[in-house]
Amino acid sequence: MSSGNTSKYLKYAIGEILLVMIGILLALQVNNWNENRKERNQENAILTQLQAEFKSNLSQLDDKIKSKKESIKSALRLFTYVDYPEMRIKDSVDFYLGRTIPYTTFDPIINDLASSGELRLISNNSLKRKLSRWTSEIADLREDELQWKDYRDNKYVPFLIEYYQLRTVRKLANESNVLGKYLIEDDPTTVMNSEIGESVHQHDFNDLLNHPDFEDHLERCLTKNRHSLNQSLILRKRVVELLNTLNAEIDQ
Fold first, then answer.
1. CA–CA distances in Å: residue 176 to residues 74, 96, 170, 173, 229
2. Residue 161 lies in a domain
3. pLDDT of residue 194
4. What is the CA radius of gyration of the chain?
5. For FRET with 230, which of 19, 93, 134, 198 sits at 20 to 30 Å CA-CA?
6. For residue 1, is it within any domain?
7. Interatomic CA distance for residues 148 and 114, integer angstroms
């Protein structure tokens, strides 16, 4: 500087500063790239996990839908026996009675991404909205299912106990594995107890079918299960939509 080379020194200093800034910007760029890559890897892992979970949820939901359809079909068949006494056959009455008693609840895998903070990693906004609605939609269905469970436990089953013998009904239900086929695993070594035999007490199914309250209980069975079936079918559409979106995102 003392020799009059000020401009050359300033150019050199500015060059050094620019090099440092470029280095910092490149380092930031590389860091951002690494962070984005990590987040995309995390997102793909989350999407793959969600895909497996919703496939499992769909399989379980389909089983519960089948169970509800059986209850509805059985209630309608028993209505026919109420209205047309000449069609009544004891084994058939017992068979369909056993299929009005069960209740099923949909208990899916729930991955609460919002509370864990992982929802932000999902880049598809449409998928985010669908996932954020998932918990509330399950709650709506479960509320309907539990209403039938409560009615069944507190009114329908006590009525059947008072006016019929459930031992024979349960025997037929166990023999046809009406509940076993909805176990969480399809295990052939698991069998329902079908050795309880028939009741030794006299029981006339005509007394049950002719009782004025019986058709009211059937109406509750039909209405409650039909409503939760409709909710289940709506929820099934949601699951299929989610799976289609997840599949598309994973295949990208």
1. 14, 11, 10, 5, 22
2. yes
3. 53
4. 32
5. 93
6. no
7. 31
Distance separating alpha carbons of residues 62 and 181, to the nearest angstrom? 12
CA–CA dist 57, 11 (Å, integer) = 67
Helices (H) and strands (E) in the chain, counts: 8, 0
84 is a domain residue: yes
Calculated CA dihedral for residues 137, 139, 144, 150, nearest 10 degrees: 170
Q: How far apart are CA 26 and CA 190, in angstroms?
A: 63
Residues of the chain with pLDDT under 50: 1, 182, 184, 186, 188-189
Q: In this structure, is residue 157 part of a structural domain?
A: yes
> Is 97 buried (19+), middle (13-18) or exposed (0-12) by CB count in 10 A?
buried
Tokens of 169: 């009904």
Token output for 38: 């990590």
Residue 172 tokens, joined: 């037929």
d(CA 228, CA 103): 11
pTM score, two decimals?
0.77
What pLDDT, on the 0 to 100 scale, is given for residue 200? 64
- What pLDDT does 88 receive? 94
Q: How many domains does the chain have?
A: 1
Place of tokens 């059947």: 160
Q: Which residues lie closer than 8 Å to 11 by C-beta, 6 or more apart? A: none
- What is the domain extent for residue 26? 6-251
Phi-psi region of 177 (alpha: psi -120 to 50; beta: other; left: phi over 0): left
CA dist 197 and 63 (Å) reads 28
Predicted local distance difference test score (pLDDT) of residue 25: 86
Asked if residue 198 lies in contact with residue 246, where contact means CB atoms within 8 angstroms, the answer is no
Closest among 171, 41, 194 to 94, alpha carbons compared = 171
Two tokens, residue 130: 């669908």
